[in-house]
């Protein structure tokens, strides 16, 4: 008898039955008698698993679903509820206007439980700890103080121009190096001397882990959290090695540059940085709160790794594909700044076409096509529908930025669409208000990010011409694709 009960098929069957009953139970817990927002009918037991589960371009799948069900699509599988918003109106109503309820982050068993990425405030749920870390970050990167990094940005640009002049074919490495040097100098006051610096690698790998595990449904354990208890020696548990690898990398990325900065501060060899300002405000080492505050500081600093590299790579691709846009931008620089001169931040307000080009860059290719998912921290009722607590709310940024109601011929790359009567057209949807996220969770690094991009984009256009590679017959043979680091040429 006991043998029959322990038979793997019996255990599997019983588990399915329990999951099914749980699903029925959870599905019945509606906020009120109101229905959930529309969405495809789920299958028996697994619900909408096939819609939520891993796929290469989920934003395109969600966009197709919205054509059938409207600008709010509700999916559910094993108790996980997902609401996909695909219009500015819905996003504004829920993520901006009701942001006190929609600023949570979902506890993803893989990302948070296994990989421990919820130590960084970008992945923390809406809590006092999140508020503390976010405030700390904001102090150093809000719009009024970000100009303090301009000297570092400008010196980085000079070095970038030298590097590209010396070896233009290595442009990807030089762009990467520009962003990494900038981040390390501004955050840690530390100069990165080598392109292959281990800190750079740790940061990139930490980000890589986030990009894969940050999308709900990428790992089965996100749907069935009980899988956490499956022992590592069982076949099919390679995801546990993945989690361990990235857990270690993110800890290194957090601790090593910070310790390096502390050492340089003690030796008096580092320049003023976010780290030095944060350390000055920490309680004394004798204070029991010191450890906790210092851990928060380490976590906050690590988030600086999130880079604008992807946008810069996409810029290079677009200039190679659109010589007419490149020429027009160069003509504006020649006229406003002078031929072969690198603009400064003072020139920025006069460079309207460059402004439009950067906006179009963010519109045409969103680096984070589904933003970062928010969650509802309480039950809600909206537009005749019930939205239960813990629903994951995702904005389909890609679809909003390609909506023909906002942009004519949305697939076309056309900076001119953002200009009217020689000025930025305020009547057209500003892509930055979508690309950098929403409400209380809006990207706090956006000002730094836009300034660093302005500097590298204008320096590149002022000093170089970008053209596609040619074959022996002189024909362009450029092939490209996109990955998490932007365009791959
Ligand atoms: C092209 C560059 C960038 C893009 C497109 C981008 C986009 C985003 C998006 C979509 C979010 C999620 C917002 C939401 O939850 O609604 C976010 C969050 C965040 N970003 Fe950025 N970002 C960029 C660069 C940066 C940089 C350079 C930094 C650091 C200096 C940074 C720091 C952060 C942090 C800390 C969060 C988490 C905020 C929170 O959860 O409270 N980002 N970013």
UniProtKB/TrEMBL annotation:
UniProt xrefs under PANTHER family: P450, PUTATIVE (EUROFUNG)-RELATED, P450, PUTATIVE (EUROFUNG)-RELATED-RELATED
Q: Which cofactor does it need?
A: heme
Lineage, top-rank taxon, reads Eukaryota
The GO terms this record gives for MF are:
heme binding; iron ion binding; monooxygenase activity; oxidoreductase activity, acting on paired donors, with incorporation or reduction of molecular oxygen
What the record says about family reads: Belongs to the cytochrome P450 family.
So, what pathway does this thing act in?
Secondary metabolite biosynthesis
For binding heme, which residues are annotated in this chain's numbering? 443
CDD domains, per database record: CYP64-like
Q: What protein am I looking at?
A: Cytochrome P450
- A Pfam family matched in the record: p450
Q: Which InterPro entries match?
A: Cyt_P450, Cyt_P450_CS, Cyt_P450_E_grp-I, Cyt_P450_sf, Cytochrome_P450_fung
> What stretches pass through the bilayer?
6-22, 300-321
Tell me the keywords, alphabetical order.
Answer: Heme, Iron, Membrane, Metal-binding, Monooxygenase, Oxidoreductase, Transmembrane, Transmembrane helix
